[in-house]
Amino acid sequence: MADDSASVDVLNGAAQTRLRTIIERVERLEEDKAAVMNDMKEVFAEAKGEGFDVKILRKIVRLRKQDRAKRLEEEALIDLYLSAIGGL
Amino acid sequence: MADDSASVDVLNGAAQTRLRTIIERVERLEEDKAAVMNDMKEVFAEAKGEGFDVKILRKIVRLRKQDRAKRLEEEALIDLYLSAIGGL
Amino acid sequence: MADDSASVDVLNGAAQTRLRTIIERVERLEEDKAAVMNDMKEVFAEAKGEGFDVKILRKIVRLRKQDRAKRLEEEALIDLYLSAIGGL
Amino acid sequence: MADDSASVDVLNGAAQTRLRTIIERVERLEEDKAAVMNDMKEVFAEAKGEGFDVKILRKIVRLRKQDRAKRLEEEALIDLYLSAIGGL
DNA sequence: GCTTGGGGCGTTCGAC
DNA sequence: GTCGAACGCCCCAAGC
């Protein structure tokens, strides 16, 4: 056997390559995500160093997020109303 | 009062500006994070469309992540030992 | 052995009794929950029978819930601000 | 307009009242459900405080539920067979 | 059957 | 360092 994996032949060559590509793309994205989260941590740490209360900052961000979510839902509800009465 | 916020004067102008900047940076980062996570969803959706089992794919990614973490730990331990005996 | 379970002796008599009590309380609560959820289903079914759009009803309920959550968070933020400046 | 809602006239008075009633009933039931779930959380927290493993407790409850479902299915099957042969 | 919402679980982060 | 709370992930069920 040319490969050290016992079950390698379950997928043909093309599928194996495709699988590798998918895994790599996901892992690259996870790196990106980790980097972003790290940046956020740095921003908060910096803010804390300037005397801001991180807990309050987080709450503000959360609150604004809720606002946005609510707005979006309201718009969705309007769309729903419109579709319920047969569109515009 | 030149602002519609009742408690605006608790922070001076510079601090207010700084606060806004911080909030905006965090929110920008949250957007980035959401975008990345969305990309991941798309990759998985695409993979699913090609017949791959998304659950298994996630498991593979997780396992590889653990592997990497383990490798890093081992390397750190090796470095520790090496430094303990005065290097290579 | 006075019991048909092989691992019964892992817990002493008091603990066994306590365990039974806990399980029974949880199961009673699950029944309550199921009953409540069933009632909700009935309300929606009834509403549907009167010509109301259940999907819209659900969205309204969700929206009002978000409203309440947001209000509570805002109050929590105010409390946080107050505590941050040393109370009232 | 006697109401602050712009789209109020889409439903007549009776329907509006009915709608309010429905929403209120649902919201009341959601409160009930939340209360029940909160009670469950308390039971588990209490159990945890006594040294029980909450995850295991949940598993037990789930298993017993499956058991009960299985018993009910079997009984239903027995009834079916019985009715098929004209009762006992 | 596919997608969307809800519940459960593990992880992470901050508080004490 | 332990604790609890918040967040993200995963699974399941229900609706379209």
Calculate the mean pLDDT score of chain A and round it.
88
Assembly status: homotetramer
Major sheet details of chain A = none
String of helices and strands of chain A: HH
Hey, which two chains have the biggest interface? Answer: A-B, 26 and 26 residues
Outline the low-pLDDT stretches of chain A.
none
Q: Which percent range describes the beta-strand content of chain A?
A: under 5%
Number of domains of chain A: 2
- Helix count of chain A? 2
Number of strands of chain A: 0
Shape of chain A: flat
Q: First CA to last CA of chain A: what distance?
A: 66 Å
Structural class of chain A: mainly alpha
Helical percentage of chain A: over 70%
Any overview of this molecule?
The structure is a homotetramer of 88-residue chains. Chain A is mainly α and 88 residues long. Chain A has two domains: 1-51; 53-88. The first copy, chain A, is 77% helix and 0% strand. Chain A has two helices and no strands. The first copy, chain A, has helices spanning 13-49, 54-84. The longest helix of chain A is centred in the middle third of the chain and has 37 residues, at 13-49. The first copy, chain A, starts with 12 loop residues before the first helix and ends with a helix. Chains in contact: A-B, A-C, C-D. Chains A and B meet through helix 1 and helix 2 of A and helix 1 and helix 2 of B. The structure holds a DNA duplex (16 and 16 nucleotides).
